[in-house]
Amino acid sequence: MESNLNLLPSKNNNILFNKIISITKYQRNYIKTSLDKLAKEDPENINILCDYIIAEQTEINIKKSTKEWKIKNLISLLKFVNNKNFKEITKQDILDFLNSKRKPESIDPTHKSIGTWNNLQILFLKFFRWHYNQYEFDPKKRETPSYMKGVRRLPRKEKSCYKPSDLWTIEEHSIFLKYCPSKRDKAFHAMAMDTSARPSELLNLKIKDVKFKITPT
Question: Is the domain of 174 the same as that of 113?
Answer without folding.
Answer: no
